């Protein structure tokens, strides 16, 4: 009587960016800490994002009106936000940054106390989000006329700025759902601005397309939008004599820095690549370019 061989449970294949991050950690052990943090952030954000519902649809007329006025598509009231999920995400994000030495213990303690005080946390997050909109495209009308959020400086501004990194990471799963739902069906060819058409954050990466176009990548929601490859997204300088570009020694990576505002943006060059861009991977693989830019006096 023959005995059937025991079944080996099938393992689910890992996403491409996770596989590439683990490969990067092997090939470049000096980047191991950054890779490990990125892996944990991805796991946390995707776990949260899986529970976030799609936002309500935005009418075409309203969408066109916001973009034509230079206003990003998302207002705070549009976010499919569950406050209990956001509080948990803030706490877990803060724990990660503390563990990897990227957050001071005192700041960590203060932020955890804030997450237990809904009366303080909610206005803080609202003010933090409104401030980024005001820096990019101030709303018309008297102060306080936009969703009840003040346009003039608020006592919350300093505190919101103090926790900017944590809040940006924690709100990403909610903004990313909006980006998935809205940006793919939005015509952005007329949005030649250096801030995100969805959430008004600055770019922290770019993609050089095979046909010569450049797409900027939002530092907060991950959305992409077209922008001139010959201009600085931060000050719009387009004088090539005042733009500096250099490439990594290995990999399809470039960095373009502006000699006017001294800002820079890194890019993945599809023309020299054998795979599509993986921002979670490529932003870590290009950390040596950041170091080179800083040594030359530029800032991100």
Descriptive notes:
This protein folds into 2 domains: 51-185, no CATH class; 203-295, no CATH class. It has helices at residues 16-27, 32-49, 60-68, 83-99, 105-115, 118-136, 156-162, 164-182, 279-285, 287-295, and strands at 203-208, 214-218, 224-226, 243-247, 253-258, 264-269. It is globular, with a radius of gyration of 21 Å. With 300 residues, it is an alpha+beta fold.
Shape: globular
> First CA to last CA: what distance?
70 Å
Multimeric organization = single chain
Count the beta strands: 6
Which secondary-structure class do the elements indicate?
A: alpha+beta
What fraction of the residues are assigned to beta strands by DSSP?
A: 5-15%
Number of individual domains: 2
How would you describe this structure in keywords?
10 helices; 6-stranded mixed beta sheet; 300 residues; alpha+beta; 6 strands; disordered N terminus; globular; 2 domains; single chain
Summarize the structure.
The chain is 43% helix and 10% strand. With 300 residues, the protein is an alpha+beta fold. It folds into 2 domains: 51-185, no CATH class; 203-295, no CATH class.
